[in-house]
């Protein structure tokens, strides 16, 4: 009987230890993320096939061919409730400011196919802006965090905005830091729009 209980406990541990929101990366992928930083990354939208080339400029990024536009990186995951809730509001901002503004959503913390992201996130929550599920996402995110000297564990949603390759100061809704360069967690779209207008006016 003692052996039976030991076996059940060991089996339960093995089953439970296999569940995680962050899939383990294989050795090749890990090596890719630790290689020298690239000067550009080509990423593709999950359903439209549209492509953007992100170029490293002045310690940040610009989108090739759209260098004059403000770029917002939105780090999110399909299972994240705040990410789901804000998706239609981000769509509204993208439509309203399409001439001057590009949202690039970088899927993170999960390993799912494009079709899953399309069905379970874009169509379900109205996320009609550029979404990439690229193999480059992790290294782009790691580069962004390094660029802004963000040295704690990233939580999602997490956003930054850039203009002319430079990270912009945006509203710190928690601590009021005037030099803040990121949004952490749920942020009202009105706050994002207010910051966007200031950046565009520069």
Largest sheet: 6 strands, mixed
Query: Class in CATH?
Result: Alpha Beta
- Give the overall silhouette: globular
Number of helices: 6
User: What string, H for helix and E for strand, traces the elements in order?
Assistant: HHEEEEHEHEHEEEH
CATH structural fold name: Glutaredoxin
Number of folding domains? 1
- By CATH, the superfamily comes out as Glutaredoxin
Computed structural class: alpha+beta
Which percent range describes the beta-strand content?
15-25%
Observed structural traits:
six-stranded mixed sheet; 9 strands; Glutaredoxin; alpha+beta; 6 helices; 38% helix; three-stranded antiparallel sheet; 202 residues; single chain
Question: What would you note in describing this structure?
Answer:
- The chain has 202 residues and is an alpha+beta fold.
- The N and C termini lie far apart (74 Å).
- The strands form 2 sheets. Strands 4, 5, 6, 7, 8 and 9 form a 6-stranded mixed sheet that branches. A 3-stranded antiparallel sheet has the order 1-2-3, covered by helices on one side.
- The protein has one domain (2-201): Glutaredoxin, CATH 3.40.30.10.
- Helix 3 (81-96) links the parallel strand 4 (70-76) and strand 5.
- The chain has helices at 2-17, 27-34, 81-96, 114-125, 137-147, 189-201, and strands at residues 40-44, 51-57, 60-63, 70-76, 101-107, 130-132, 158-163, 166-167, 183-184.
């Amino acid at each position: 009987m003692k052996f039976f209980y030991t076996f059940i406990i060991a089996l339960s541990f093995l089953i439970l230890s296999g569940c995680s929101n962050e899939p383990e990366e294989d050795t090749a992928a890990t090596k890719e993320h630790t290689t020298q930083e690239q000067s550009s990354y080509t990423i593709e939208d999950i359903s439209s096939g549209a492509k953007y080339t992100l170029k490293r400029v002045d310690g940040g990024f610009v989108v090739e061919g759209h260098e004059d536009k403000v770029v917002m990186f939105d780090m999110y995951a399909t299972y994240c409730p705040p990410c789901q809730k804000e998706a239609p509001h981000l769509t509204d901002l993208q439509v309203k400011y399409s001439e001057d503004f590009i949202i690039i959503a970088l899927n993170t913390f999960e390993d799912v196919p494009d079709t899953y992201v399309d069905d379970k996130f874009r169509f379900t929550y109205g996320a009609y802006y550029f979404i990439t599920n690229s193999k480059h996402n992790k290294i782009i995110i790691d580069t962004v965090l390094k660029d802004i000297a963000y040295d704690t564990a990233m939580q999602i949603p997490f956003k930054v905005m850039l203009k002319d390759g430079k990270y912009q100061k945006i509203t710190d809704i928690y601590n009021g830091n005037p030099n803040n360069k990121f949004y952490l967690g749920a942020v009202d779209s009105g706050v994002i729009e207010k910051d966007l207008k200031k950046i565009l006016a520069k």
